[in-house]
Amino acid sequence: MPELPDVEGFRRVLAEHAVNRRITGVVVRDAQVLRDVGAAALREALTGRRFAEPRRLGKWLLVPVRGGPATVVLHFGMTGSLHWQTGEPHRHDRVIFCFADGELRYRDMRKLQGLRLAADEQALDRLLADTGPDALEVGPLKDVLPPRKQLKAALVDQSVLAGLGNLLADEILWRAKLNPYRKVSSVGEKELGLLRTTMRKTLRESVEAGRVPPRPSWLTGRRDEPSGSCPRCGTTLEHGRAGGRGTVWCPHCQPG
């Protein structure tokens, strides 16, 4: 599932190849990924226009359109991605933005999310109203995390904190040595400070890698092994569910 580092990578692809360049056409190969906008309206709004500098909010990619108030809003769901390519389209390329020497392609196998066109700032604000602060930019966590929630559930709740998915939440909690089932109210201010520092470091390393890297020294590199062990202490990892998500932790490093 694309998380904050993946979406930041998609933002960089768009910024490098498509910003300030004339859109010569928009090909909608599968209208099922369009949300609250039709194919004809999307083509009319974008053809002949140019994208301005994109920005990211958690898992959302926001792309202003020059010469008008509209913003293209992309969400990548479970299997979405963004590619700059030429040649024959991939079978899961759903929407293609055409330029003079290449194409920006929104690709998505499962089509759980998709593409929106916010007509103006007010529409964009309404769309993002339930989205929390970006996990890479957030201030003190004591001001954000709900005290009654479990830590894992709070971290993956996009209305609380935007950008973290399953892999990142487990990785961050493992690095911070915090049990995913602990209530936020039981975590002291010093521990929350460590959690924020750990989160920012993990995110920066993941952004640099373009994903949450499955390195042997990371929990992510061991979590899917049948009898995976903690990269830090060698204890067999525990598996369960927290916040409705499959969860992995070390019972020795992350006691309850």
Key descriptive features of the protein:
256 residues, alpha+beta, five-stranded mixed β-sheet, 2 domains, Helicase, Ruva Protein, domain 3, single chain
Summarize the structure.
This protein has 256 residues and is an alpha+beta fold. It is built from 6 helices and 11 strands. The chain has a 5-stranded mixed beta sheet with strand order 2-9-5-4-3. Strands 1-7-8-6 form a 4-stranded antiparallel beta sheet. A two-stranded antiparallel ribbon has the order 10-11.
Description:
The chain is α+β, with helices and mostly antiparallel strands. The longest helix has 21 residues, at 189-209. It folds into two domains: 4-127, N-terminal domain of MutM-like DNA repair proteins (Alpha-Beta Barrel); 141-249, Orthogonal Bundle (Helicase, Ruva Protein, domain 3), CATH 1.10.8. Helices cover 26% and strands 21% of the residues. Helix 1 (4-17) crosses helix 6. A hairpin with a 2-residue loop joins strand 3 (55-57) and strand 4 (60-64). The chain is elongated, with a radius of gyration of 20 Å. It has six helices and eleven strands. The strands form three sheets. A five-stranded mixed β-sheet has the order 2-9-5-4-3. The chain has a four-stranded antiparallel β-sheet with strand order 1-7-8-6.
